[in-house]
Each structure stands twice: as C-alpha cells, then as structure tokens.
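Pilot study result, target chain (250 residues):
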Amino acid sequence: MTRTVLVTGSSRGLGAAIGKTLSQQGFQVVINYYKSKDAAEKLVSEIGKENAVAIQADVTNRSEVDRLIKEATEYFGQIDVVVNNALVDFKFDPNKQKAFTELTWDDYQKQLDGTLKAAFNVVQSVIPQFIGRQNGSIISIGTNLYQNPVVPYHEYTTAKAGLIGFTRNIASELGQYGIKANVVSGGLLKTTDASAETTPEVFDVIAQSTPLKKVTTPQDVANMVAYLSSENADGITGQNFTVDGGLTMN
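Predicted structure:
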C-alpha cells in the first residue's frame, strides 16, 4: 500500500527536496506551506496531482493544523508519516546573528514556537489516526549544531535540541501503538533559502572539517527521511540520525 507523507514547510528549500525525493520513491506527498503558494503549487505540478497536494496552514496555529490534517486525510484517505520540517523566520547568517548578550527571550520564543510548538500541534493532531491503525511514523528535522555549534545560532539550536527530548518521549509512550518517532539532524545545508547568507568561508571550514570533505546537501537529508518513511525502517524509533559527512560522530 502506498504511504502518504505530510511534510510541513515543504514548498521550498529542504522541504521541497524531501517532497520530491519521497515522490520519486513512490510516496504520496502533502506539501504544506504558509505563504509560498505559487512555489507549493509548482511543486505539486512537478510531482503530479495524483501523488501530491498543496495545503496552506500555519503550523504554529493548532486550529489551522487540525484543518491541515483533516484536508490531507480526506484527499489521500489517511496519513502514514509526518515530517516536522517547517522553519519559522530564521536565516543562517553568521554576520547578523545576535550575540547572546543581545538576544531577548522573544528571539528564543519565536524558535521554540516554530520548532517545538509546531511539532506538538502536528503530532497531537495526527496521532488519533495513528493509534487507530496501530502504525505511523513521526520524523522531525533537527541540526548537528546542538553537538557542534560551529556558529552559535543560540535560539535556533536550543529549539532544535529540544526536539530530541520531545521525540524520545513520544517514541517511549507511543511505541505500544506501533508508532515510531525519530530525528534527522543535518549539517548546514548547501544551499537553501535559510543558508543563502552563509559565507563561503564558513562552508569551506565545514567541508574541510568533515571526513568526507563535503558540505551536507538537502538531498543527503532527504534520502534519510525517505528511508525512515519506508517500511524498511519500521523497527527504528527514538533515534537521532546525524547527516553531516561525519563532522559530528555519536
């Protein structure tokens, strides 16, 4: 049976790469977007309307998430996998990143809402159908920066680190229902909208620091997400998979 995957924040960047890769590997894909309607609809046309649908929703808003889950379920019949990918208003710009002494709690709260609150909303909204079928998979996009803060993106990294605790608790409680939960933590991606302002010097330092002598690409992360979305990964839960060319080793 074809699996349906909801990817939040997937009209562009890493989310779009994940959506395309999933479709190429035989999944049906729900493309969620907030403002980028044209990009989302273009992606659907590239994949094909029989295998993809674009649905607008602000994932930090629970009522909109409930509508997203309802519409996606009605379109494809069910949701088998959710990928918490949405990134809310953050740029990897080492020249403009605030020093810790300049940050406010609002800076942290914005990232906590965009990362943890969004994941909470999506997971809690979809979980009744996962429990009903005794199966389902939750995949959240993290970062290797929590292990190795090459650039101290304080608020972003803190929120993403929280995803690991969130995920492991979900995995522990919901495993009895056949539900899996994992994190895919990529390195700094070359290149997405979020990393467009990252200087070549930073990318070069990262590349030379990895055993593979390369910077992580969106495709590298998308491949791992696709694997975890498949039946081949049905025995895996509570894990954090780091995809960064070996820059950080667990």
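One observation from the pilot: The chain has a mean pLDDT of 94. A full batch analysis is planned for the follow-on phase.
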